[in-house]
TrEMBL record:
Pfam families the record matches: RPE65
Role played: Broad specificity mitochondrial dioxygenase that mediates the asymmetric oxidative cleavage of carotenoids. Cleaves carotenes (pure hydrocarbon carotenoids) such as all-trans-beta-carotene and lycopene as well as xanthophylls (oxygenated carotenoids) such as zeaxanthin, lutein and beta-cryptoxanthin at both the 9,10 and the 9',10' carbon-carbon double bond. Through its function in carotenoids metabolism regulates oxidative stress and the production of important signaling molecules.
Cofactor names: Fe(2+)
Organism, scientific name: Acipenser oxyrinchus oxyrinchus
Keywords: Dioxygenase, Iron, Lipid metabolism, Metal-binding, Mitochondrion, Oxidoreductase
Keyword Lipid metabolism: yes
PANTHER family, A to Z: BETA-CAROTENE DIOXYGENASE (PTHR10543), CAROTENOID-CLEAVING DIOXYGENASE, MITOCHONDRIAL (PTHR10543:SF122)
Gene Ontology cellular component terms for the protein in this record: mitochondrion
BP terms from Gene Ontology: carotene catabolic process; retinal metabolic process
Protein name from the UniProt record: Carotenoid-cleaving dioxygenase, mitochondrial
GO molecular function, one term: beta-carotene 15,15'-dioxygenase activity
Compartments reported by the entry: Mitochondrion
Cofactor: how and how many bound: Binds 1 Fe(2+) ion per subunit.
Catalysed reaction, written as an equation: all-trans-zeaxanthin + 2 O2 = 4,9-dimethyldodeca-2,4,6,8,10-pentaenedial + 2 (3R)-hydroxy-beta-ionone; all-trans-10'-apo-beta-carotenal + O2 = beta-ionone + 4,9-dimethyldodeca-2,4,6,8,10-pentaenedial; lutein + O2 = (3R,6R)-3-hydroxy-10'-apo-alpha-carotenal + (3R)-hydroxy-beta-ionone; lutein + O2 = (3R,6R)-hydroxy-alpha-ionone + (3R)-3-hydroxy-10'-apo-beta-carotenal
Length: 521
Protein backbone atom coordinates (compact mmCIF):
# COMPACT_ATOMS: atom_id res chain seq x y z
CA UNK A 1 0.00 0.00 0.00
CA UNK A 2 2.79 2.44 0.92
CA UNK A 3 4.52 1.79 -2.41
CA UNK A 4 1.33 2.64 -4.26
CA UNK A 5 0.92 5.87 -2.29
CA UNK A 6 4.45 6.95 -3.11
CA UNK A 7 3.64 6.83 -6.82
CA UNK A 8 0.74 9.26 -6.50
CA UNK A 9 1.55 12.97 -6.81
CA UNK A 10 1.52 14.76 -3.48
CA UNK A 11 -0.88 17.36 -4.83
CA UNK A 12 -3.75 14.85 -4.70
CA UNK A 13 -2.73 13.04 -1.52
CA UNK A 14 -5.31 14.92 0.47
CA UNK A 15 -8.07 13.28 -1.62
CA UNK A 16 -6.93 9.73 -1.02
CA UNK A 17 -9.69 7.66 0.58
CA UNK A 18 -9.25 5.44 3.57
CA UNK A 19 -11.64 2.84 4.97
CA UNK A 20 -10.05 3.13 8.41
CA UNK A 21 -12.69 3.53 11.07
CA UNK A 22 -12.59 6.99 12.61
CA UNK A 23 -12.47 7.34 16.34
CA UNK A 24 -16.06 7.64 17.49
CA UNK A 25 -16.99 10.66 19.57
CA UNK A 26 -17.88 9.87 23.16
CA UNK A 27 -18.53 12.13 26.14
CA UNK A 28 -17.70 12.31 29.81
CA UNK A 29 -20.80 13.82 31.40
CA UNK A 30 -21.58 13.25 35.07
CA UNK A 31 -24.70 13.62 37.18
CA UNK A 32 -27.29 12.74 34.55
CA UNK A 33 -30.93 12.85 35.62
CA UNK A 34 -32.55 9.44 36.12
CA UNK A 35 -35.03 8.76 33.29
CA UNK A 36 -36.62 5.61 34.68
CA UNK A 37 -40.10 7.26 34.63
CA UNK A 38 -39.89 7.39 30.83
CA UNK A 39 -39.62 3.61 30.54
CA UNK A 40 -42.28 2.40 32.90
CA UNK A 41 -45.75 1.09 32.11
CA UNK A 42 -48.52 3.70 32.01
CA UNK A 43 -52.30 3.48 31.73
CA UNK A 44 -53.96 4.52 28.50
CA UNK A 45 -56.10 7.68 28.50
CA UNK A 46 -58.97 6.86 26.13
CA UNK A 47 -61.06 9.92 27.08
CA UNK A 48 -59.62 13.31 26.03
CA UNK A 49 -58.18 15.49 28.77
CA UNK A 50 -57.51 19.20 28.35
CA UNK A 51 -53.87 20.16 28.77
CA UNK A 52 -52.67 23.21 30.69
CA UNK A 53 -50.40 25.23 28.41
CA UNK A 54 -47.37 27.32 29.22
CA UNK A 55 -46.90 29.71 26.35
CA UNK A 56 -49.03 30.17 23.24
CA UNK A 57 -49.66 27.91 20.26
CA UNK A 58 -49.95 29.78 16.94
CA UNK A 59 -53.53 30.10 15.73
CA UNK A 60 -52.72 28.58 12.34
CA UNK A 61 -51.84 25.20 13.85
CA UNK A 62 -54.97 23.05 13.86
CA UNK A 63 -55.06 19.27 13.60
CA UNK A 64 -53.96 16.09 15.34
CA UNK A 65 -50.39 15.48 16.41
CA UNK A 66 -50.02 11.69 16.46
CA UNK A 67 -47.22 9.95 18.33
CA UNK A 68 -46.26 6.34 18.84
CA UNK A 69 -43.98 4.41 21.16
CA UNK A 70 -43.76 1.72 23.85
CA UNK A 71 -46.10 2.12 26.83
CA UNK A 72 -46.24 -1.30 28.54
CA UNK A 73 -43.10 -3.14 29.59
CA UNK A 74 -44.37 -6.25 31.35
CA UNK A 75 -47.15 -8.83 31.45
CA UNK A 76 -47.67 -10.60 34.75
CA UNK A 77 -44.27 -11.22 36.29
CA UNK A 78 -42.47 -11.28 32.93
CA UNK A 79 -40.66 -8.13 31.81
CA UNK A 80 -39.30 -6.92 28.49
CA UNK A 81 -35.57 -6.43 28.16
CA UNK A 82 -35.27 -3.74 25.47
CA UNK A 83 -36.78 -0.31 24.91
CA UNK A 84 -38.00 -1.43 21.47
CA UNK A 85 -40.03 -4.30 22.96
CA UNK A 86 -42.74 -2.43 24.87
CA UNK A 87 -46.34 -2.56 23.65
CA UNK A 88 -47.36 0.23 21.28
CA UNK A 89 -49.25 3.11 22.88
CA UNK A 90 -50.85 5.54 20.42
CA UNK A 91 -51.03 9.20 21.42
CA UNK A 92 -53.10 12.02 20.01
CA UNK A 93 -52.73 15.72 20.77
CA UNK A 94 -55.72 17.50 19.25
CA UNK A 95 -54.73 21.10 18.60
CA UNK A 96 -57.59 23.48 17.95
CA UNK A 97 -57.88 27.24 18.34
CA UNK A 98 -54.90 27.43 20.66
CA UNK A 99 -56.04 24.58 22.94
CA UNK A 100 -54.75 21.02 23.26
CA UNK A 101 -56.59 17.86 24.24
CA UNK A 102 -54.70 14.61 24.81
CA UNK A 103 -55.73 10.98 24.68
CA UNK A 104 -54.01 7.62 24.21
CA UNK A 105 -54.88 4.02 23.48
CA UNK A 106 -52.90 0.81 23.32
CA UNK A 107 -52.71 -0.67 19.85
CA UNK A 108 -54.96 -3.71 19.79
CA UNK A 109 -52.43 -5.88 18.02
CA UNK A 110 -52.60 -9.67 18.10
CA UNK A 111 -49.46 -9.57 20.21
CA UNK A 112 -51.04 -7.26 22.78
CA UNK A 113 -54.22 -9.34 22.90
CA UNK A 114 -52.57 -12.74 23.37
CA UNK A 115 -50.10 -11.40 25.93
CA UNK A 116 -52.99 -9.82 27.85
CA UNK A 117 -55.08 -12.98 27.65
CA UNK A 118 -52.32 -15.16 29.10
CA UNK A 119 -50.89 -12.45 31.39
CA UNK A 120 -47.38 -13.26 30.22
CA UNK A 121 -45.10 -12.57 27.24
CA UNK A 122 -46.22 -15.02 24.56
CA UNK A 123 -44.73 -13.35 21.46
CA UNK A 124 -40.99 -12.70 21.29
CA UNK A 125 -39.79 -9.17 20.57
CA UNK A 126 -36.51 -7.64 19.39
CA UNK A 127 -34.72 -7.99 22.72
CA UNK A 128 -36.97 -10.42 24.61
CA UNK A 129 -37.43 -14.15 24.05
CA UNK A 130 -40.83 -15.52 25.00
CA UNK A 131 -40.62 -18.51 27.31
CA UNK A 132 -42.52 -21.77 26.59
CA UNK A 133 -46.08 -22.09 27.86
CA UNK A 134 -45.81 -23.28 31.50
CA UNK A 135 -49.13 -25.12 31.06
CA UNK A 136 -47.53 -27.54 28.58
CA UNK A 137 -45.87 -30.74 29.71
CA UNK A 138 -42.09 -31.13 29.72
CA UNK A 139 -41.93 -32.69 26.25
CA UNK A 140 -44.18 -30.04 24.70
CA UNK A 141 -42.08 -27.26 26.22
CA UNK A 142 -38.92 -28.90 24.88
CA UNK A 143 -40.35 -29.20 21.36
CA UNK A 144 -41.51 -25.58 21.39
CA UNK A 145 -37.87 -24.40 21.53
CA UNK A 146 -37.45 -25.70 17.96
CA UNK A 147 -40.52 -24.02 16.52
CA UNK A 148 -39.97 -20.96 14.32
CA UNK A 149 -40.65 -17.66 16.03
CA UNK A 150 -43.65 -15.78 14.70
CA UNK A 151 -43.01 -12.11 13.87
CA UNK A 152 -44.58 -9.57 16.15
CA UNK A 153 -47.26 -7.15 14.96
CA UNK A 154 -46.51 -4.69 17.77
CA UNK A 155 -46.44 -1.51 15.65
CA UNK A 156 -44.57 0.70 18.10
CA UNK A 157 -42.10 2.48 15.81
CA UNK A 158 -43.86 5.02 13.61
CA UNK A 159 -47.01 6.31 11.96
CA UNK A 160 -46.93 5.89 8.17
CA UNK A 161 -49.37 6.69 5.39
CA UNK A 162 -50.32 4.64 2.34
CA UNK A 163 -53.07 5.47 -0.16
CA UNK A 164 -54.48 8.07 2.21
CA UNK A 165 -54.76 5.75 5.22
CA UNK A 166 -52.76 5.93 8.45
CA UNK A 167 -50.89 2.90 9.76
CA UNK A 168 -48.62 2.20 12.70
CA UNK A 169 -45.60 0.15 11.80
CA UNK A 170 -42.75 -1.79 13.26
CA UNK A 171 -40.07 -3.46 11.08
CA UNK A 172 -41.68 -6.85 10.55
CA UNK A 173 -44.13 -7.67 7.75
CA UNK A 174 -47.12 -6.46 9.78
CA UNK A 175 -48.73 -3.02 10.06
CA UNK A 176 -52.02 -1.89 11.59
CA UNK A 177 -54.40 0.57 9.99
CA UNK A 178 -55.62 3.03 12.63
CA UNK A 179 -58.19 5.79 12.79
CA UNK A 180 -56.31 9.07 13.46
CA UNK A 181 -59.39 10.56 15.13
CA UNK A 182 -60.38 7.73 17.49
CA UNK A 183 -57.00 5.87 17.63
CA UNK A 184 -59.00 2.68 17.02
CA UNK A 185 -57.10 -0.31 15.60
CA UNK A 186 -58.93 -1.11 12.37
CA UNK A 187 -57.10 -3.74 10.33
CA UNK A 188 -53.92 -5.81 10.43
CA UNK A 189 -52.06 -5.70 7.10
CA UNK A 190 -49.36 -8.14 6.00
CA UNK A 191 -46.79 -6.84 3.50
CA UNK A 192 -45.98 -10.39 2.37
CA UNK A 193 -49.52 -10.78 1.00
CA UNK A 194 -48.76 -8.13 -1.61
CA UNK A 195 -44.99 -8.27 -2.28
CA UNK A 196 -42.35 -10.92 -1.55
CA UNK A 197 -40.73 -9.33 1.50
CA UNK A 198 -40.27 -10.49 5.09
CA UNK A 199 -40.55 -7.01 6.54
CA UNK A 200 -40.42 -3.31 5.72
CA UNK A 201 -39.03 -0.18 7.34
CA UNK A 202 -41.17 2.25 9.29
CA UNK A 203 -39.77 5.20 7.31
CA UNK A 204 -41.22 5.29 3.79
CA UNK A 205 -40.74 8.21 1.42
CA UNK A 206 -43.38 9.99 -0.62
CA UNK A 207 -43.49 11.66 -4.02
CA UNK A 208 -45.59 14.82 -4.33
CA UNK A 209 -48.39 12.83 -6.04
CA UNK A 210 -48.65 10.47 -3.04
CA UNK A 211 -46.69 7.54 -4.47
CA UNK A 212 -44.88 5.81 -1.60
CA UNK A 213 -41.49 4.10 -1.57
CA UNK A 214 -40.18 1.74 1.08
CA UNK A 215 -37.59 -1.00 1.50
CA UNK A 216 -37.78 -4.50 2.91
CA UNK A 217 -35.67 -7.66 2.98
CA UNK A 218 -36.55 -11.01 1.49
CA UNK A 219 -35.05 -14.41 2.27
CA UNK A 220 -36.01 -16.96 -0.35
CA UNK A 221 -34.83 -19.19 -3.18
CA UNK A 222 -32.99 -16.31 -4.80
CA UNK A 223 -31.09 -15.69 -1.58
CA UNK A 224 -31.17 -12.59 0.57
CA UNK A 225 -32.21 -9.35 -1.11
CA UNK A 226 -32.80 -5.72 -0.18
CA UNK A 227 -35.96 -4.73 -2.03
CA UNK A 228 -37.24 -1.31 -3.05
CA UNK A 229 -41.04 -1.22 -2.93
CA UNK A 230 -43.37 1.22 -4.69
CA UNK A 231 -46.97 1.72 -3.51
CA UNK A 232 -49.45 3.60 -5.76
CA UNK A 233 -50.89 6.88 -4.48
CA UNK A 234 -54.58 6.00 -4.68
CA UNK A 235 -56.95 3.13 -4.03
CA UNK A 236 -59.00 1.37 -6.64
CA UNK A 237 -61.52 0.23 -4.01
CA UNK A 238 -62.31 1.63 -0.57
CA UNK A 239 -61.15 -1.60 1.03
CA UNK A 240 -57.68 -1.48 -0.55
CA UNK A 241 -54.62 -1.43 1.68
CA UNK A 242 -51.41 -2.21 -0.24
CA UNK A 243 -53.01 -3.38 -3.51
CA UNK A 244 -50.79 -2.48 -6.45
CA UNK A 245 -47.57 -2.49 -4.43
CA UNK A 246 -44.62 -3.84 -6.38
CA UNK A 247 -40.92 -4.47 -5.99
CA UNK A 248 -39.08 -2.28 -8.49
CA UNK A 249 -35.51 -3.24 -7.57
CA UNK A 250 -33.79 -6.07 -5.67
CA UNK A 251 -30.26 -5.52 -4.40
CA UNK A 252 -28.01 -8.46 -3.45
CA UNK A 253 -26.07 -7.88 -0.20
CA UNK A 254 -22.30 -8.01 0.09
CA UNK A 255 -22.73 -11.09 2.31
CA UNK A 256 -25.95 -13.07 1.86
CA UNK A 257 -25.56 -14.75 5.27
CA UNK A 258 -25.05 -11.40 7.00
CA UNK A 259 -27.14 -8.68 5.40
CA UNK A 260 -27.12 -5.22 6.91
CA UNK A 261 -29.66 -3.85 9.33
CA UNK A 262 -31.22 -0.60 8.13
CA UNK A 263 -33.85 1.68 9.62
CA UNK A 264 -34.35 4.15 6.76
CA UNK A 265 -33.04 5.09 3.31
CA UNK A 266 -32.64 8.16 1.11
CA UNK A 267 -34.63 9.37 -1.90
CA UNK A 268 -34.18 12.09 -4.50
CA UNK A 269 -36.50 13.11 -7.31
CA UNK A 270 -35.20 10.30 -9.54
CA UNK A 271 -33.32 7.87 -7.31
CA UNK A 272 -33.57 5.72 -4.19
CA UNK A 273 -30.35 5.64 -2.15
CA UNK A 274 -29.68 2.63 0.07
CA UNK A 275 -26.93 2.58 2.70
CA UNK A 276 -25.57 -0.91 3.39
CA UNK A 277 -23.85 -0.41 6.73
CA UNK A 278 -21.77 -2.80 8.87
CA UNK A 279 -24.51 -3.40 11.45
CA UNK A 280 -25.00 -7.02 10.44
CA UNK A 281 -27.85 -9.49 10.79
CA UNK A 282 -26.35 -12.92 11.39
CA UNK A 283 -29.16 -14.94 9.81
CA UNK A 284 -27.99 -18.29 11.19
CA UNK A 285 -27.94 -16.91 14.73
CA UNK A 286 -31.33 -15.26 14.30
CA UNK A 287 -32.96 -18.38 12.83
CA UNK A 288 -31.57 -20.58 15.61
CA UNK A 289 -31.93 -17.99 18.39
CA UNK A 290 -34.95 -19.58 20.01
CA UNK A 291 -33.45 -23.04 20.34
CA UNK A 292 -30.32 -21.46 21.82
CA UNK A 293 -32.34 -19.42 24.30
CA UNK A 294 -31.40 -16.09 22.73
CA UNK A 295 -33.40 -13.21 21.27
CA UNK A 296 -33.25 -11.57 17.84
CA UNK A 297 -31.05 -8.71 19.03
CA UNK A 298 -28.31 -11.20 19.95
CA UNK A 299 -27.88 -11.87 16.22
CA UNK A 300 -27.27 -8.22 15.32
CA UNK A 301 -23.67 -7.04 15.64
CA UNK A 302 -21.51 -4.09 14.68
CA UNK A 303 -18.73 -5.35 12.39
CA UNK A 304 -16.47 -2.36 11.63
CA UNK A 305 -14.07 -4.42 9.52
CA UNK A 306 -16.58 -3.96 6.68
CA UNK A 307 -16.87 -0.80 4.63
CA UNK A 308 -20.20 0.94 4.12
CA UNK A 309 -21.61 0.49 0.61
CA UNK A 310 -24.05 2.99 -0.92
CA UNK A 311 -26.35 1.75 -3.70
CA UNK A 312 -28.34 4.01 -6.04
CA UNK A 313 -31.35 2.83 -8.06
CA UNK A 314 -33.51 4.64 -10.59
CA UNK A 315 -37.12 5.14 -9.49
CA UNK A 316 -38.25 5.13 -13.13
CA UNK A 317 -36.48 1.99 -14.40
CA UNK A 318 -35.77 0.13 -11.18
CA UNK A 319 -32.19 -0.41 -12.34
CA UNK A 320 -29.14 0.10 -10.17
CA UNK A 321 -26.70 2.61 -11.59
CA UNK A 322 -23.35 0.95 -12.48
CA UNK A 323 -21.29 2.70 -9.81
CA UNK A 324 -21.32 1.82 -6.11
CA UNK A 325 -19.94 4.11 -3.46
CA UNK A 326 -17.85 3.01 -0.50
CA UNK A 327 -17.36 4.79 2.80
CA UNK A 328 -15.81 4.17 6.17
CA UNK A 329 -17.83 2.04 8.64
CA UNK A 330 -20.77 4.07 9.91
CA UNK A 331 -23.97 3.50 11.89
CA UNK A 332 -27.01 5.31 10.49
CA UNK A 333 -30.65 5.24 11.55
CA UNK A 334 -32.18 8.37 10.03
CA UNK A 335 -31.51 10.29 6.84
CA UNK A 336 -32.15 14.04 6.73
CA UNK A 337 -32.69 14.73 3.03
CA UNK A 338 -31.25 13.96 -0.40
CA UNK A 339 -31.34 15.90 -3.67
CA UNK A 340 -29.72 16.07 -7.08
CA UNK A 341 -27.45 18.92 -8.13
CA UNK A 342 -25.08 19.32 -11.10
CA UNK A 343 -24.79 15.62 -11.84
CA UNK A 344 -24.41 14.59 -8.21
CA UNK A 345 -26.59 13.25 -5.42
CA UNK A 346 -26.24 15.18 -2.18
CA UNK A 347 -27.01 12.77 0.66
CA UNK A 348 -27.46 14.13 4.17
CA UNK A 349 -27.56 11.67 7.07
CA UNK A 350 -27.28 11.48 10.83
CA UNK A 351 -24.70 8.84 11.73
CA UNK A 352 -22.06 7.88 14.24
CA UNK A 353 -18.73 6.12 13.88
CA UNK A 354 -19.62 3.20 16.15
CA UNK A 355 -22.62 0.89 15.96
CA UNK A 356 -23.09 -0.64 19.39
CA UNK A 357 -25.92 1.72 20.31
CA UNK A 358 -28.68 -0.93 20.17
CA UNK A 359 -27.23 -2.77 23.16
CA UNK A 360 -27.13 0.37 25.29
CA UNK A 361 -30.90 0.84 24.99
CA UNK A 362 -31.77 -2.17 27.08
CA UNK A 363 -34.37 -1.22 29.67
CA UNK A 364 -32.08 -2.10 32.56
CA UNK A 365 -29.65 0.54 31.25
CA UNK A 366 -32.32 3.20 30.82
CA UNK A 367 -33.48 2.67 34.41
CA UNK A 368 -30.04 3.12 35.94
CA UNK A 369 -29.10 6.17 37.98
CA UNK A 370 -26.00 7.89 39.24
CA UNK A 371 -22.61 6.77 38.04
CA UNK A 372 -24.03 3.65 36.36
CA UNK A 373 -26.29 5.81 34.14
CA UNK A 374 -23.43 8.18 33.35
CA UNK A 375 -21.34 5.22 32.20
CA UNK A 376 -24.04 4.00 29.80
CA UNK A 377 -24.35 7.45 28.24
CA UNK A 378 -20.61 8.03 28.01
CA UNK A 379 -20.10 4.72 26.19
CA UNK A 380 -22.75 5.57 23.57
CA UNK A 381 -21.19 7.16 20.48
CA UNK A 382 -22.57 10.57 19.54
CA UNK A 383 -24.46 10.99 16.27
CA UNK A 384 -23.94 14.00 14.00
CA UNK A 385 -25.41 15.39 10.74
CA UNK A 386 -23.07 14.75 7.82
CA UNK A 387 -23.11 15.03 4.04
CA UNK A 388 -21.94 12.77 1.23
CA UNK A 389 -21.75 13.82 -2.41
CA UNK A 390 -22.19 11.00 -4.96
CA UNK A 391 -21.15 11.81 -8.55
CA UNK A 392 -23.56 9.99 -10.87
CA UNK A 393 -21.37 9.81 -13.99
CA UNK A 394 -18.42 7.54 -13.25
CA UNK A 395 -17.08 5.05 -15.78
CA UNK A 396 -13.86 3.39 -16.95
CA UNK A 397 -12.59 6.68 -18.38
CA UNK A 398 -12.95 8.56 -15.09
CA UNK A 399 -9.60 9.51 -13.63
CA UNK A 400 -8.45 7.90 -10.39
CA UNK A 401 -7.10 9.72 -7.36
CA UNK A 402 -9.04 12.92 -8.00
CA UNK A 403 -11.93 14.46 -6.14
CA UNK A 404 -15.01 14.04 -8.34
CA UNK A 405 -17.14 16.35 -6.23
CA UNK A 406 -17.39 19.60 -8.18
CA UNK A 407 -20.04 21.25 -5.99
CA UNK A 408 -18.53 24.52 -4.72
CA UNK A 409 -20.53 24.50 -1.48
CA UNK A 410 -19.45 21.07 -0.17
CA UNK A 411 -16.09 19.83 1.10
CA UNK A 412 -17.17 16.17 0.86
CA UNK A 413 -14.97 14.06 -1.40
CA UNK A 414 -15.56 11.27 -3.91
CA UNK A 415 -12.46 9.59 -5.28
CA UNK A 416 -12.21 6.73 -7.76
CA UNK A 417 -9.63 4.25 -6.49
CA UNK A 418 -7.34 2.12 -8.59
CA UNK A 419 -9.66 -0.85 -8.03
CA UNK A 420 -12.46 1.10 -9.74
CA UNK A 421 -14.45 1.72 -6.56
CA UNK A 422 -15.55 5.22 -5.66
CA UNK A 423 -14.70 6.03 -2.05
CA UNK A 424 -16.59 8.91 -0.45
CA UNK A 425 -15.79 10.91 2.65
CA UNK A 426 -18.29 13.09 4.45
CA UNK A 427 -18.56 16.75 5.25
CA UNK A 428 -19.71 17.72 8.75
CA UNK A 429 -22.89 19.81 8.77
CA UNK A 430 -22.22 21.26 12.22
CA UNK A 431 -19.81 23.23 14.35
CA UNK A 432 -18.40 22.50 17.81
CA UNK A 433 -21.53 23.82 19.52
CA UNK A 434 -23.40 20.70 18.40
CA UNK A 435 -20.78 18.56 20.11
CA UNK A 436 -21.63 20.41 23.31
CA UNK A 437 -25.32 19.71 22.67
CA UNK A 438 -24.59 15.96 22.59
CA UNK A 439 -24.96 15.49 18.85
CA UNK A 440 -28.26 15.27 16.99
CA UNK A 441 -30.82 12.62 16.03
CA UNK A 442 -34.43 12.35 14.79
CA UNK A 443 -33.87 14.96 12.04
CA UNK A 444 -36.89 16.63 10.42
CA UNK A 445 -37.30 18.95 7.45
CA UNK A 446 -40.29 20.73 5.95
CA UNK A 447 -40.98 17.53 4.02
CA UNK A 448 -43.84 18.71 1.82
CA UNK A 449 -41.83 21.67 0.52
CA UNK A 450 -38.21 20.54 0.58
CA UNK A 451 -37.98 16.76 0.36
CA UNK A 452 -35.71 15.82 -2.59
CA UNK A 453 -34.87 19.54 -3.00
CA UNK A 454 -32.01 21.76 -1.95
CA UNK A 455 -32.80 23.16 1.48
CA UNK A 456 -31.25 25.18 4.27
CA UNK A 457 -32.75 24.29 7.66
CA UNK A 458 -33.59 21.15 9.55
CA UNK A 459 -34.59 20.33 13.11
CA UNK A 460 -33.58 17.54 15.44
CA UNK A 461 -33.16 16.49 19.05
CA UNK A 462 -30.00 17.25 20.97
CA UNK A 463 -28.74 14.32 23.05
CA UNK A 464 -27.03 15.32 26.24
CA UNK A 465 -28.77 12.26 27.65
CA UNK A 466 -29.73 8.80 26.42
CA UNK A 467 -32.96 10.35 25.10
CA UNK A 468 -33.41 13.69 23.39
CA UNK A 469 -33.30 16.58 25.85
CA UNK A 470 -33.53 19.58 23.52
CA UNK A 471 -34.91 20.76 20.20
CA UNK A 472 -32.32 22.12 17.79
CA UNK A 473 -32.59 24.15 14.60
CA UNK A 474 -29.64 23.74 12.23
CA UNK A 475 -28.54 26.03 9.40
CA UNK A 476 -26.85 23.93 6.73
CA UNK A 477 -25.36 26.91 4.89
CA UNK A 478 -23.52 28.25 7.93
CA UNK A 479 -23.53 24.98 9.93
CA UNK A 480 -24.67 26.99 12.92
CA UNK A 481 -27.05 25.77 15.58
CA UNK A 482 -29.67 28.51 15.27
CA UNK A 483 -31.84 27.59 18.26
CA UNK A 484 -31.65 25.30 21.23
CA UNK A 485 -34.73 24.76 23.37
CA UNK A 486 -34.23 22.44 26.32
CA UNK A 487 -37.20 20.64 27.80
CA UNK A 488 -37.86 18.48 30.85
CA UNK A 489 -37.18 14.81 30.27
CA UNK A 490 -40.14 13.79 32.41
CA UNK A 491 -42.44 15.44 29.90
CA UNK A 492 -42.76 14.45 26.28
CA UNK A 493 -42.68 18.06 25.15
CA UNK A 494 -40.42 17.75 22.11
CA UNK A 495 -43.08 18.33 19.55
CA UNK A 496 -44.90 21.03 21.47
CA UNK A 497 -41.68 22.91 21.92
CA UNK A 498 -41.48 22.92 18.13
CA UNK A 499 -45.13 23.88 17.74
CA UNK A 500 -45.14 26.83 20.09
CA UNK A 501 -42.75 26.29 22.98
CA UNK A 502 -45.48 24.98 25.22
CA UNK A 503 -44.91 22.13 27.64
CA UNK A 504 -47.80 19.72 28.10
CA UNK A 505 -47.98 18.10 31.57
CA UNK A 506 -49.22 14.66 30.55
CA UNK A 507 -47.78 11.43 31.94
CA UNK A 508 -46.57 9.31 29.02
CA UNK A 509 -43.50 7.27 28.15
CA UNK A 510 -40.85 8.62 25.81
CA UNK A 511 -41.98 7.82 22.27
CA UNK A 512 -40.14 7.10 19.06
CA UNK A 513 -41.77 8.95 16.16
CA UNK A 514 -44.85 10.95 15.31
CA UNK A 515 -46.68 12.74 12.52
CA UNK A 516 -48.74 15.90 12.44
CA UNK A 517 -52.03 15.50 10.61
CA UNK A 518 -52.89 19.14 10.08
CA UNK A 519 -55.91 20.73 8.48
CA UNK A 520 -53.50 23.25 6.95
CA UNK A 521 -49.98 22.90 5.52
Amino acid sequence: VMAMLQNIPAVINRFLPSSRQELARFTSLQGLECIAPLVKTVEETPQPVTADLSGEIPSWINGNFLRNGPGKFEFGNQKYNHWFDGMALLHQFKIENGTVKYKSKFLQSDTFKINSEHDRIVVSEFGTLAMPDPCKNVFQRFVSWFEMQKPTDNGSVHYVKYMGDYYVSTETNYMHKVDPETLASMEKVDWSKFVAVNGATAHPHYDPNGTSYNMGNSYGRQGTRYNIIRVPPQKTNDSDTLQGAQIICSIPPQDGAKPSYYHSFGMTENYVVFIEQPIKLNLLKIITAKMRGECISDGIKWEPDHETVIHVASKQTGQLIPVKYYAKPLAMFHQINAFEDQGCIVLDLCFSDEGGVLTNYQIQNLRKSGQALDEVYNTTARTFPRRFVLPLTVDSSTATGQNLNTLPYSSATAVKRDDGKVFVTHEDLHLDDLVEAGGLEFPQINYAKYNTKKYRYFYGCGFRHLVGDSLLKMDIDTKEMKEKNTFLLVLDAKSFTELGRAAVPVKMPYGFHGVFASSKQ
